[in-house]
Amino acid sequence: MHADARSPIGVFDSGVGGLSVLQALCEALPHERFVYYADTAHAPYGERGDAYVLARTLAVANDLVEGRGVKALVVACNTATAAAIHELRALWPGLPIVGVEPALKPAVAASRTGRIAVLATRGTLASAKFRRLQETAAPRAQVAAVPCDGLADAIERADAAETEALCARYMQAAGPFGAGAGETDTVVLGCTHYPFATGVLRRHAPASVRFLDTGAPVSLRTRQLLAEAGLLAGPGAAGGI
Ligand code: DGL
User: Fold this and answer.
1) Nearest-angstrom CA–CA distance, 116 and 229
2) Do the beta carbons of residue 210 and residue 186 sit within 8 Å?
């Protein structure tokens, strides 16, 4: 389907998590229109295995690209990015496609202790993509990878009691926290659902601990790819709205 600068940007996730990315996109790209696809009938993705997540991601992307004519695709889901980003790029080579990955590079730059915790789904942490990221971005850091089974689902269902219990459990595994050697001083939120629980997670760590998510870098990357493709909307842009 033909897309131009007036076409919307497609953003998707297994559920509400990608809204944390959409918020950053709306701030960085105020002239753009967005179509948000929450695949809630098939969520959560995190514990389902690669084949399932790949199939769902291709189905949703096909709907957005071929059905709704989006001019760019933001895969606002770490689990779907890990399972399917290469296939998406092979299927639509001319389309700007932005994925998300745990913010390990910024975490390495920010950490003083060299001990970083990554909270993410089991699928993301088990992926070859995450293994490569860890090898290239954090070869010397001590990374506590914490698979947070059930947390995205609890956030999705807005179950406050379960979210609280799971956050307590997973933050225990992410510690010990502190500013000394061998202590965690930086927590990477490697699932787009988790920024919605930042307040709860923070209660289980000292105030000095940093929490990093990926909304801002993803929105900057999206703007860069749209600009390079001549597809930015807005006053003065070609075909602007
Ligand atoms: N929000 C997703 C992520 O960033 C996945 C959550 C899920 O469906 O398990 O990984």
Assistant:
1) 36
2) yes
Average of per-residue pLDDT values in the chain: 95
Residue 216 Cα to ligand 1 midpoint, Å, equals 18
- In a mutational test of the pocket of ligand 1, which residue from 14, 163, 212 has the highest number of ligand atoms less than 8 Å from its CB? 14
**Atom of ligand 1 lying closest to residue 193 CA:** 1
Measuring from atom 9 of ligand 1, which residue has the nearest CA?
Answer: 46
* C-alpha 187 – ligand 1 centre gap (Å): 17
- Regions of the chain where pLDDT drops below 50: 236, 238-241
Ligand 1 midpoint to CA 53 (Å):
10
CA 222 to each of CA 10, 32, 191: distance values in angstroms, whole numbers, following the listed order: 11, 11, 19
| Buried residues in 199-231 as b, exposed as e (16+ CB within 10 A) | ebbeebbeeebbbbbbbbbbbebbbebbeeeeb
- For the stretch 25-49, pLDDT in tens is 999 999 999 999 999 999 999 999 9
Strands lying side by side in the sheet with 34-38: 34-38, 9-13, 72-75, 97-98
Atom of ligand 1 nearest to the CA of 124: 10
Instruction: Using CA atoms of 77, 87, 216, 206 in order, give the dihedral in degrees to the nearest 10.
Output: 50
| Predicted pLDDT at 210 | 97
* Pair of tokens at residue 41: 């009938």
